[in-house]
């Protein structure tokens, strides 16, 4: 059967259309795969990168050199862990980020927002560790003692949002001493961090504060020497601990001992930790007293202050100024101006942190600054 010229032309046109359609399909597929890969790369957690190595056996996760503001103690701690990995020591273990956690512990409802703001920063910077919020169990139980949804009015809303947006694990905690008043903040203790035995190591940062570099925090959490408790030195006394930053190795037996001790002789959180874990060796000291900067430190900046160097060398800053009630309060403008650093670059960072805190309260918690009450 002979084809007419019209039929031949039709088949030829169909073939060209088919070829172009197929080419268009494959080009679209390639673009789609590149887009998917880019999205996956963008959302995956940021972990400390492996060091360059000529040997495959030495390709290990390297802790970043922590910032100068954190001091050399943290850097040497990370380097020690890296050497353990390279040497094949039995002490070296692969990192399971699900077993490491950033933990916030709140005792009052007014502490919830500041804690969640830190979780939001960790989430935005793709911290690979688990995020856990400990709060009084009394917020989550009814009159029959049955655990309900762990939310209570504004705190309920904030914690629900944190669990949904930032994948925060909500963990009710009982009073530190059996039978204590569950409505009093004094009935709860930082020592309850030891009860989180599903985690191998946890880090607690005292709010309010701002995280500039979550990767440094992950490095410190993963690579610091193993000890029941590591902390910064107190600013007031180098022989005492500070609660501003704690690294805890949870232990059920240790938790019970601390609870029994406090039942017999009630102590403040930091006194309990200090007396139970005195500095017996250098490894218990995470860093020097001034290794974690405060916003108030910016007031002492000289004219040679380098803002870029400070930001590059600071992972976490406490928002603390003795002249101000706290970043959560609506301080009168003249008082705020009086508390600002006099050096322009230091003042720019100070204002950035305070303005960021206010914006964070609104965007993350839906809260404006609290009115300042003066007695």
Percent of residues in beta strands? 5-15%
> What is the strand arrangement across the widest sheet?
3-2-1-4-7-6-8
CATH topology of the largest domain: Spore Coat Polysaccharide Biosynthesis Protein SpsA, Chain A
Query: How far from one another are the termini?
Result: 106 Å
Gyration radius over CA? 27 Å
Note down, in words, how this protein is organized.
It is a single chain. The protein is α/β, with parallel strands linked by helices and 375 residues long. It has two domains: 68-288, Spore Coat Polysaccharide Biosynthesis Protein SpsA, Chain A (Alpha-Beta Complex); 295-371, no CATH class. The protein is built from ten helices and eleven strands. The strands form three sheets. The protein has a seven-stranded mixed beta sheet with strand order 3-2-1-4-7-6-8, with helices on both faces. The longest helix is centred in the first third of the chain and has 39 residues, at 5-43. The termini are far apart. InterPro entries: Nucleotide-diphossugar_trans. This is Glycosyltransferase family 8 protein. One of its GO terms (molecular function) is transferase activity. Keywords: Membrane, Transferase, Transmembrane, Transmembrane helix. The chain crosses the membrane at residues 6-31.
């Amino acid at each position: 059967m002979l084809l007419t010229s019209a039929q031949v032309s039709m088949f030829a046109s169909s073939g060209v259309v088919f070829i172009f359609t197929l080419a268009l399909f494959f080009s679209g597929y390639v673009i789609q795969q590149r887009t998917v890969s880019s999205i996956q790369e963008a959302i995956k957690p940021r972990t400390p990168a492996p060091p360059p190595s000529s040997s495959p056996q030495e390709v290990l996760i390297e802790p970043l050199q922590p910032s100068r503001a954190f001091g050399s103690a943290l850097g040497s701690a990370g380097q020690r862990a890296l050497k353990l990995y390279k040497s094949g020591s039995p002490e070296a273990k692969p990192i399971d980020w699900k077993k490491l956690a950033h933990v916030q512990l709140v005792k009052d409802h007014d502490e919830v927002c500041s804690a969640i703001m830190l979780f939001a920063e960790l989430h935005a910077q793709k911290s690979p560790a688990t995020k856990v919020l400990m709060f009084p169990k009394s917020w989550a139980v009814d009159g029959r003692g049955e655990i309900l949804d762990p939310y209570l009015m504004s705190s309920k809303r904030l914690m629900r949002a944190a669990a949904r947006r930032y994948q925060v694990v909500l963990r009710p905690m009982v009073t530190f001493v059996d039978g204590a008043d569950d409505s009093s903040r004094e009935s709860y203790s930082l020592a309850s961090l030891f009860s989180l035995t599903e985690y191998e190591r946890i880090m607690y940062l005292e709010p309010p504060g701002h995280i500039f570099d979550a990767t440094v925090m992950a490095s410190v959490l993963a690579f610091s020497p193993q000890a029941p408790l590591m902390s910064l030195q107190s600013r007031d006394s180098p022989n005492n601990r500070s609660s501003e930053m704690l690294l805890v190795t949870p232990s059920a037996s240790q938790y019970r001992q601390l609870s029994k001790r406090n039942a017999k002789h009630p102590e403040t959180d930091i006194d309990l930790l200090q007396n139970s874990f005195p500095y017996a060796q250098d490894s218990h000291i995470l860093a020097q007293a001034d290794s974690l900067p405060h916003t108030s430190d910016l007031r002492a900046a000289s004219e040679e202050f380098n803002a870029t160097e400070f930001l590059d060398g600071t992972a976490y800053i406490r928002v603390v100024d003795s002249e101000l009630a706290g970043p959560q309060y609506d301080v009168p403008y003249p008082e705020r101006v009086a508390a600002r650093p006099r050096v322009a670059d230091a003042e720019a960072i100070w204002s950035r942190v305070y303005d960021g805190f206010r914006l964070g309260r609104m965007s993350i918690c839906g809260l404006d600054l609290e009115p300042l009450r003066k007695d």
